[in-house]
Amino acid sequence: MLYSLLDLAPVPEGSDIPEALANSADLAAHAEALGYHRYWLAEHHNMPGIASAATAVLIGHIASRTSTMRIGAGGIMLPNHAPYMVAEAFGTLASLYGDRIDLGLGRAPGTDMATARALRRGLSQQDSFPQDVIELIGFLGPEDPEARVRAFPGQNTHVPVWILGSSLYGAQLAAQLGLPYAFASHFAPQALEEALQVYRRSFRPSVYLGQPHAMMAINVFAAETDAEGVRLRTTMQQAFARLRLGRPGKLPAPVDDIAAHLDRATLAGVNAALSVSAVGSPETVRADLTHVIDRYQPDEVILTGQIHDHTARKRSFEIAAGILRSL
User: Fold this and answer.
1) Stronger pLDDT, 123 or 272, i.e. the higher one
2) What is the pTM of this model?
3) What does the pLDDT look like over 213-235, one tens digit per residue?
4) Three-state SS for 279?
């Protein structure tokens, strides 16, 4: 089973964006050496703790620092962009780095509505996501000499397109179009099981994919002991709570007792959202990963985990890679 890595280029408290971007490049090289299949970056806006807003630019930087691992977007939030410009950007990346570039597409804006307006997109009440996906795939596909509008770069690059989602909508669309599907179970696991069933049951083979390929996201906070893994997770618990409360900021430092920092109701909601996680020592993380993989039978997993200390983050993904190789 393939295992991959999702990076948000986190900006920890006490750090800045240049350091965060340098850390992402360092983590990518580390992940490639550990056998990770893909390294995906996600588009978010107006969030002080995330440095991957200009996702295509950062993908190019990461691709230049690696040589074999696939590099891509997990994902580009298509409502923020004209499909034509996405095709040009990813066509350029594919022209520079060959068949190593992936394009995952999301339907949400990845930000608040005021920022969506600042992006000059997303103001229409009509859902054009399916049409935009089809249009974008066309710009990346075989060159049509009769077409009045063609993407250069873009045409004939055949960048693989994924549908991302956290509901049945994305699963149904990916199945209808015959595209690979990635579920955001690392922060919205409620519909995971049903979405995978719908995707696999409804999948229509296409020129892009002959059989369904489903990927699920798992948070990993691995360390030498259970206690240290639990402590590492408190960074993401705090960050997620602040986001839900409308107070996003830089990635907070871990704490010894999360219950002393979040009230009971908030903590319960956060833990439910982050329930697809593997937390603790190598032995505990192995058991957690085995349980999740056995239950959902994904074709691929993509690991993530907002960890404050860069060295600890690298070590967490190193422990996880060793476990997944053996599984």
Assistant:
1) 272
2) 0.95
3) 999 999 999 999 999 999 999 99
4) strand
**Where do we find the tokens 């063609």?**
150
Burial annotation 14-49 (CB, 10 A radius, 16+ → b, else e): ebeeeebbebbbebbbbbbebebbbbbbbbbbebeb
Half-sphere exposure of 156 (CA within 13 A, CB side): 6
How far is Cα 264 from Cα 198, in angstroms, rounded to an integer? 34
Q: What angle do CA 241, 247, 249 make, to 5 degrees?
A: 90
In order of 24, 203, 249, the CA distances from 210 in angstroms are 33, 9, 43
Residues 249 and 30: their CA atoms lie apart, in Å, by 27
| E strand map for 196-291 | 214-222, 277-280
Residue 45's nearest CA partner among 243, 215, 212 is: 243
Domain assignments of the chain as residue spans, ordered by start: 2-218+298-326
CA distances from 301 to 90, 95, 245 (A): 23, 27, 29
Q: Cα–Cα distance between 303 and 93 in angstroms, integer? A: 24
User: Quick one: 2-218+298-326 is in which CATH superfamily?
Assistant: Luciferase-like domain (3.20.20.30)
Q: Tokens representing 137?
A: 């795939």
Tokens representing residue 68 in the block = 């074999």
pLDDT digits (tens, 9 = 90+) for 110-145: 677 787 778 765 556 667 899 999 999 999 999 988
Residue 240: is it exposed, middle or buried by C-beta count within 10 angstroms (0-12/13-18/19+)? buried
